[in-house]
């Protein structure tokens, strides 16, 4: 297909190209549910807690240790299930679980207990997994999704959370095809996990996507997990059914895109089965083949194990008092939704978009900064600036200059925020804002100054502290707004000279006659360039209008 674009460039696109593009970008947007088949989904999410130690042993559980370390280097006798070893519950996973349960509006069970789930697998040396089957840690929670914050179709959607249970992670097996051997790494064995189980409340793909993102952001916000899908710190199983047919469980879905593609594929596959007179097996588990982009059967009902659940006789119940729960509630940070609303109201008045930048990790966030340190930098600078100017505060200044200008410059110059804030402290940044606030420098000069500071910063090494004196720099570069010094006569002279030098009578006539009133902006631009922003554009505008006799 040939197409002529506005710029005159000819583009060639074929139908197959469009199909590929559509497939790639259509994860949720081009997917339509069939009116006759209701989609129903429920999630089971396993989250690795980044506690200091593992769940029932003293082994190191630094978030990176079991993923990046030498295999079997983070393993204690208990993790290895040597005979005679016994579990000893660490308090930290309970603390983390309490934080999560409270944040998800759950009822915490004051007397939960651990059970053994028996199955034999080489990466499960105990022969059973310790989990909470009969009396889980928390129940009856919920998470609300909203149209504006979470990009869902409905105004609001409540996802009920059946329960949260604490359990051990298993080890990891890697099958080597050529050698025909399986390697076992027990670094992950006994890492604390929380399994979250939702009710089958999801009726649209977008809700699933939104919930995963929101939950991931929550666990990062609470600092209880890295929440990374890539490392397996967060693992999502999805149960999918249509109308009242049995659910199919989807496991081993490595990222959000495969989760969404797998649900979509499964929904369509189940409809095809029903429409061709087939039956949907009860309790089938399927995986995801990323190459073929389809779900594949892993096991069916015949393969279901009898786990012989039994209370673990070596572990006492987890008994909590109301006081402990109240104490933990008091230590909780402001939760993301509340934080967004807080940032959107007085005194900050941020837009939803900017409030989200400071609260939620975005897909295009890079290694230079994270939203939390950016938020802290913003809040500290804001407070300093507000203390200086009181009620005359212009809340757009910190937003524009931190979220937009500073971030843009850091990206351009590839400077991490951490390095920047060590030198350009919130105090100094608020001084900088004050110069703009008091119109000591123009926006143009502000941009030049900030970029210059950051460029210089890039050249100094990390350990050197750079001395920063804003006033000195302004003098050195002659950036001070000269309005105060430029008298009206001088301004008239300057503007008249600019008009003369324009050498464009037609433009001047068009402005005067009102044919092209916007051309005055061009002339103001000339003045700004010549005087490098030292005279305010409003003053130029006033004077040019006066000279050209236009309103
Ligand atoms: N009709 C349904 N359609 C889709 N999902 C469903 C349906 N009924 C239940 N589910 C979902 O199935 C999941 C059941 O998880 P749960 O952990 O209770 O049991 P399980 O999958 O049998 O056990 P395991 O933890 O061993 O996988 C929940 O996420 C629930 O929302
Ligand atoms: Mg399941
Ligand atoms: Mg489950």
From TrEMBL:
An individual GO BP term: mitochondrial translation
Main location, first listed in the record: mitochondrion
Catalytic activity: L-glutamyl-tRNA(Gln) + L-glutamine + ATP + H2O = L-glutaminyl-tRNA(Gln) + L-glutamate + ADP + phosphate + H(+)
Keyword line: ATP-binding, Ligase, Mitochondrion, Nucleotide-binding, Protein biosynthesis
Superkingdom of origin: Eukaryota
A molecular-function term among this protein's GO annotations: ATP binding
UniProt KW Protein biosynthesis keyword: yes
Stated role: Allows the formation of correctly charged Gln-tRNA(Gln) through the transamidation of misacylated Glu-tRNA(Gln) in the mitochondria. The reaction takes place in the presence of glutamine and ATP through an activated gamma-phospho-Glu-tRNA(Gln).
The family this protein is said to belong to: Belongs to the GatB/GatE family. GatB subfamily.
Name this protein carries in UniProt: Glutamyl-tRNA(Gln) amidotransferase subunit B, mitochondrial
Organism, scientific name: Naumovozyma castellii (Yeast)
Primary gene name: NCAS0E02540
């Amino acid at each position: 297909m040939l197409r002529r674009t506005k710029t005159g460039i000819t583009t060639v696109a074929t139908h197959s190209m469009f199909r590929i593009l559509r497939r790639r970008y259509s994860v949720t947007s081009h997917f339509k549910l069939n009116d006759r088949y209701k989609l129903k989904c429920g999630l089971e999410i396993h989250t690795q807690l980044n506690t200091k130690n593992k769940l029932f042993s003293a082994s190191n559980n630094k978030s990176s240790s079991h993923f990046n370390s030498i295999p079997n280097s983070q393993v204690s006798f208990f993790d290895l299930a040597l005979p005679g070893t016994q579990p000893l519950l660490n308090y930290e996973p309970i603390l983390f679980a309490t934080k999560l349960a409270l944040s998800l509006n759950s009822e915490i069970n004051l007397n939960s207990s651990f059970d053994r789930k028996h199955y034999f697998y080489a990466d499960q040396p105990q022969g059973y997994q310790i989990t909470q089957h009969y009396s889980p840690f928390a129940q009856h929670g919920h998470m609300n999704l909203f149209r504006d914050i979470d990009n869902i179709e409905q105004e609001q959607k409540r996802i009920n959370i059946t329960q949260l249970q604490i359990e051990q992670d298993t080890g990891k097996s890697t099958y080597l095809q050529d050698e025909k051997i399986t390697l076992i790494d027990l670094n992950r064995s006994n890492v604390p996990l929380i399994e979250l189980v939702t009710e089958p409340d999801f009726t649209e793909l977008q809700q699933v996507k939104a919930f995963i993102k929101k939950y991931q952001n929550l666990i990062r916000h609470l600092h209880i997990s890295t929440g990374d899908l890539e490392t397996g710190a967060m693992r999502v199983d999805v149960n999918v059914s249509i109308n009242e047919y049995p659910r199919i469980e989807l496991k081993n879905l490595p990222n959000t895109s495969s989760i969404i593609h797998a649900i979509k594929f499964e929904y369509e596959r189940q409809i095809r089965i029903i429409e061709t007179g087939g039956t949907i097996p009860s309790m089938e588990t399927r995986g995801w083949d990323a190459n073929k982009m389809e779900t594949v059967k892993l096991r069916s009902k015949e393969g279901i194990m009898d786990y012989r659940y039994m209370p673990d006789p070596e572990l006492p119940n987890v008994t909590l008092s109301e006081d402990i729960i109240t104490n933990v509630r008091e230590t909780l940070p402001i939760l993301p939704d509340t934080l967004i609303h807080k940032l959107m109201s007085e005194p900050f008045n941020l837009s939803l978009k900017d409030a989200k930048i400071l609260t939620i990790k975005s897909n295009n966030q890079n290694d230079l900064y994270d939203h939390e340190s950016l938020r802290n930098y913003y809040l500290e600078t804001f407070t300093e600036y507000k203390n200086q100017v009181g009620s005359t505060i212009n809340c757009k200044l910190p937003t524009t200059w931190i979220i937009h200008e500073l971030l843009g410059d850091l990206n351009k110059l590839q400077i991490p925020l951490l390095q920047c804030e060590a030198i350009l402290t919130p105090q100094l940044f608020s001084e900088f804002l004050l110069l703009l606030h008091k119109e000591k420098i123009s926006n143009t000069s502000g941009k030049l100054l900030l970029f210059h500071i950051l460029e210089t910063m890039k050249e100094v090494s990390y350990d050197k502290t750079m001395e920063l004196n804003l006033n000195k720099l302004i003098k050195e570069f002659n950036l001070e707004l000269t309005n105060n010094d430029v008298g009206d006569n001088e301004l008239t002279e300057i503007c008249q000279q600019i008009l003369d030098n324009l050498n464009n009578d037609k433009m001047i006539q068009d402005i005067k006659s009102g044919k092209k009133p916007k051309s005055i902006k061009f002339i103001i631009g000339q003045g700004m360039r010549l005087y490098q922003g030292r005279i305010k554009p409003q003053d130029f505008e006033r004077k040019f209008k006066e000279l050209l006799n236009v309103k």
